[in-house]
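2-oxoglutarate dehydrogenase, mitochondrial
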Amino acid sequence: MERLVSSVTRPRLLTVRCILKLTLPIRSAHAPAKSDGLSVNYHDQMYKEWLNNPQSVHKSWDLYFRSQNQGKSSMSTSVKIYPTQPTVSASNFRVDAKALNDHMAVAALIGSFQTRGHKVAQLDPLGISSIDLDRERPIDLSYQFFNFSEADLNRQFALPPFTFIGGHETQLSLREILRRLDYVYCRTIGIEYMYINNREQCNWIRERFEDPSQSQLSNDEVHRAVQQLIRTTHFEKFLGSKWATEKRFGVEGCDMLIPAMKMVIDTVIQTGVDTLIMGMPHRGRLNVLANVIQKPLEEILCQFNEHLKPSDTSESGDVKYHLGTCVERLSSVTNSKIKYVLLANPSHLEAVSPVVQGRTKAEQLYRDDEKGDKVMSILIHGDAAFAGQGVVYETFHLTDLPAYTTHGTVHIICNNQIGFTTDPRVARSSPYCTDVARVVNAPIFHVNADDPEAVLRVAKEAAEWRCKFKRDVVIDLVGYRRHGHNEVDNPNFTHPYMYKKIEKQTPILTKWTDKLINERKINNSWYETEVANYEKRLATAFDNSKSDIYDKQKKWLDSPWKAFFTKTPPFAHPITGVPEERLQLIGSKVHEVPDGFTLHKRLETNFANRTTLLQERKVDWALAETMALGSLLLDGQYVRFSGQDVERGTFSHRHHVLHDQEKDLAVHVPLNKLAPAQAHYTICNSSLSEFAVLGFELGYAITSPCTLVLWEAQFGDFANNAQCIIDQFLSSGQAKWVRQNGLVLLLPHGYEGQGPEHSSARLERFLQMSAEDEDRVPDLENSAHTDLSMYQLENANWIIAHLTTPANYFHILRRQLAFPFRKPLVLMTTKSLFRLAACQSSFDELIEGTTFKRIYPEEGEAGHNPDAVKKLIFCSGKTYYDLIEARTEQKLESDIAIVRIEQLSPFPFDLIEIELKKYKSAAICFAQEEHKNMGPYSFCKPRLNLLLRKMNDNRVDKIEYAGRVSAAATATGIKSSHLTEQKNYMHQAMKI
């Protein structure tokens, strides 16, 4: 072979050296590597057959194996593919160099089509071919590149073991090989999969698409698809005829989306899937609701009624093409009940992707569906959003994480080949909009949306891939937008050439049915009957939709909590205390270490200190958190806690996951060892993503009201990166979509001289988004409530708190699941107070009969003689301890009263009014460590003034401010400046 290589021309030499390297070294992700050069995997079967009978393989492969067994590799003298096998004598044969190299060249040619055939596939219905921005035709897709001539086209070649184009045939002519490769890889389906590093998965795709016997659709499948396409097309036409000037974001141009989704669903439910969690942007949403989920047409059409009213005065509602639903119905394919969930989504198109994954994960947990056999997710995307929005990449990165995997998602990209008015050539740098999916080795099936049978085939194969391998798969449905960005948009301003092409496009329903009628696969009378029947259904639904019975927003609820909302007002404030013996049980169990487990030395000291605290009947911040979560687990309520570094805690305070110091990956989770019958505790460090992870946890939280879901930012500032989830889903979800959730955000907040990115969780932003009128004190008139605090909480969009004691932290966490409703909770959590000796609570503040305190009044000397108090300071959080220290240093305990506002929103008007009346002669000051244009000051000041006006108090509009001056950055990064600012604002606060 060494001699032979010298006689090969350079292109052929490259072929010989690279063929297996480029197309064969695909092995199991868990299999050990073979030799330094080439992989044995794809030769094994043929080689074994050759050992038994050298005549069983083509002559060229016989010569190849003989040569390799002699160690005379054409690749390198140091490489021996089969070093452990017995050698075969080669004394009486000559190697046919041309035969060997020609067969290897054919193998390389096949590998080229498998790897790059998609680049020349006919994917664009418009013929513009802008789907692949790299338009250069790969030169290795021609036989001439491998030194073949036209005279070689009729020569027979043995097929290598990594292709299935032969079916049962073992050899084909070069002409037929090229024809079949072109048919499989270069027509209306383009397949990307050769980057997948798993042999079984690659072979599965090859066999499904290359084997000629695998490509047929049944008559029933064709008829069902035609029915679905009829409904898809005529639904859009009906909406256009009734509401021509309304935005509908119809699916025209990608009409095959609906039959494709139905094919995916029909395929997966036959494997046992019975719950489908779906997310999608606005394009095609109404059609999906009508013809995939089969939501009653009346409930969809009524949304076009301009007199539509919400079912509750607190609801704002949302536009119809953002709304979701949850429907259970019988499948016509399996005659079994299937649950369909389509989550509501704002115009931040991809923001719903992680929410869907979180919802799916939770459903799988509650169903004991450990492998995703029953519950799965489907995500619909737009091409520009899929390529351009980073949350897509962030969500993909959750795919294989143990606490986040949903065991495979089917992604369908409704590829418009344009983003609003932006051409793909200036919208992305990658050749395809789908390239981000390659990061998780997801196969990508590009398909021309104007070839219905190709679309159906791809949809079926993608669904079967997901069910077999439990991994993500992407369908790139390449179409166009018939009407521009929406039905009232004029796309000719920016894309005249494209839209001239679109104007000439025959609707796919017409093209396909004409073809099927000509082929006698359907008959015309059947088709016309289907059209007439569906048009009649639409007309009837339109008439019925005018009835008041459909005038209710709650029909669009995507996350119904059955049997939860059973109580009616008045609601009593929850008592959240726990028996002391239970607290002691939790405190002792969480510090037990299994036999043979080596604990870190510093943790031994830490645990000893906590044991001393318990003996003194005290808790610090971390212990209070542990007891709150542990008590919920003992009550049978599941807890999920995620975020960056939450297992240990960013500030090395939590330690809910213990690591054996002598063994790799040996961990112990004490909170899962409290009692045999307790609920499970999931605590997991997350990927370095706030957007996707918070979206995931929100999806988890909306699935069930009986789970406490917590997400902690490494530093509160980092919540900025998840602002879309906070703004669009968390603060406004109930108002827009009637969707409650009890998600808890823990945002470490506090100024300790650590700079502008490690100080502020932007408390002011959360307070600004609170739906609370600063000019109205709430009252209980016309309300069934007797408790103002519960009345406020029930009507709040969320709860924002800045706590000062471990006891209050304990109670507010337990209160989340004790409410008869669910509200998001945003907690500005501590950093320096974790280790502050003054920041401890007694068991007396945690046991039965105790509850959360919305404020802490002054409890010291000033509180006993309020008439003598000269200054009343309101504050929250860590500032309280700074004020106490300064007041003590200056011996002002009788002159200054300090009131801590623990729950900032809803604002505790009733309790603050009591304090204002109590200290009626004192000057009023609000103190905060944040800058004046930040923090709670701007939220609390108008509310304090409102109460003073109500009281006819002459202190109105005279509230003093103590804190940092207004600034652009949240904090200084210079330690000396920090200390100076701290000293100055303490001086302001203590001035009387």
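thats it. The longest strand covers residues 923-931. The domain at 580-845 is CATH 3.40.50.12470 (Rossmann fold). bye
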